[in-house]
Design goal:
TIM Barrel; two-stranded antiparallel ribbon
């Protein structure tokens, strides 16, 4: 067993920010405003400002009495994230943001504009403790969990930027959220689930993005996958598998030493059955490591047996990190891999790669500071 890996879903609250409105549910918001000596209706008012108008500065909340704005700001809107810098590429359609939290912690999010949707990739932890050797974030290790509000505020900020036309392409609406940035979402389980509820609840309780437009990824924390299934949500589950055989996965995804591929796929099937959603299998194709034809055959065979039609493979051309020994597979190898997976009766496509010239691999920008 890999004793260095976290064996619980939630790490200690080390360096967490003060309580923020986005950390609170509806009842907790009412209690909080009453503790400030304000009437209960102010809770709904503040939530509509934050989630509906995407406003995070009480000084600009004109429907709030001027003499209470400072007190509300100090108590319910502590500074969470400040922009260190934005980097854009793909003709401006991809924008990566490096954020600094209240304690100096660095984290990242990436906004991607497509013809039919606007997708935000968000972080759930600063760093990651899963230690996958080909991942920039995994190489850096785990700094700390993000709070519910720190996760939600990445989304609010991106939605506001799109609405206000601050991103190339003019005003738009945020439509899709993927928990595929820094960190292992299910290792920060409670706060991630709370964040999903804030992101997907209609105003005034949340940002109103459809659960079906939210994807939560995991390297395969099988008990947490089952726990997520029992939340009765309809978010999509993405499992970062990266190889169909335990021998190699023990190295590529060290948490496999605790929960084997069979256990992970069994939990994924439970999630698919409970949610009614097809599971996405993420597979970073690495030259001469996991791109052999026999591995494509075995992947398709195992997925077809475990999940049947309730699975889709996202093949990801590896985005190498500086100084890494890992490299992307050649295109002919990639095409043959896709063909073989499909031949086993499993749908498989190659993910559109974005932002390669702006250190788009998760963790690269934070590592550079």
């Amino acid at each position: 067993m890999a004793t260095s890996l976290p064996l619980v879903f939630d790490a200690p609250r080390r360096g967490m920010p003060p309580r923020h409105l986005a950390d609170l549910d509806a009842d907790e918001r009412k209690t909080a405003v009453q503790e400030l000596g304000l009437p209960k209706f102010r809770a709904d008012q503040l939530a509509r400002q934050y989630y509906g108008r995407l406003q995070s500065d009480p000084a600009l909340m004109t429907d709030l009495p001027a003499d209470v704005r400072d007190k509300v700001g100090e108590t319910l809107f502590p500074p969470l994230l400040s922009v260190v810098r934005h980097l854009a590429c793909d003709s401006g359609d991809t924008r990566k943001t490096l954020w600094r939290a209240h304690d100096g912690t660095l984290l990242e999010s990436v906004l991607m504009r497509y013809s039919d949707r606007n997708t935000l990739c968000i972080s759930s932890q600063a760093g990651c403790g899963m230690a996958c050797p080909f991942c920039a974030t995994g190489q850096a290790g785990l700094t700390r969990n993000l709070s519910t509000a720190e996760i939600v505020d990445q989304v609010r900020a991106a939605a506001a930027s799109l609405r206000d036309g601050e991103v190339h392409g003019g005003p738009g609406r945020l439509s899709n959220i993927v928990f595929m940035g820094m960190g292992e979402p299910l290792a920060n389980y409670k706060r991630v689930v709370n964040a999903v509820r804030r992101i997907t609840s209609p105003a005034p309780d949340g940002l109103g993005i459809s659960q079906r437009s939210v994807t939560v990824s995991t390297v395969g924390l099988a008990p947490a996958i089952r726990k997520l299934a029992d939340e009765d949500m309809s978010v999509r589950l993405a499992v970062s598998l990266h190889t169909p055989d335990d021998e190699l996965r023990d190295t590529l995804v060290p948490v496999n030493n605790r929960w084997s591929i069979a256990e992970v796929l069994d939990a994924a099937r439970y999630y698919a059955d409970k949610s009614g959603r097809r599971v996405s299998i993420e597979y970073a194709l690495i030259r001469d490591v996991n791109d052999q034809p026999w591995r494509a055959d075995l992947l398709g065979e195992k997925l077809h047996k475990a999940l049947g039609p309730l699975v889709h493979v996202n093949l990801i051309p590896l985005n190498p990190t500086p100084g890494s020994e890992w490299d992307a597979s050649p295109k002919p190898v990639e095409r043959e891999f896709v063909r073989r997976v499909i031949a086993q009766g499993v749908s498989c496509t190659v993910r559109d790669t974005r932002g390669q010239e702006i250190a788009a691999a998760c963790g690269q920008l934070a590592a550079e500071g």
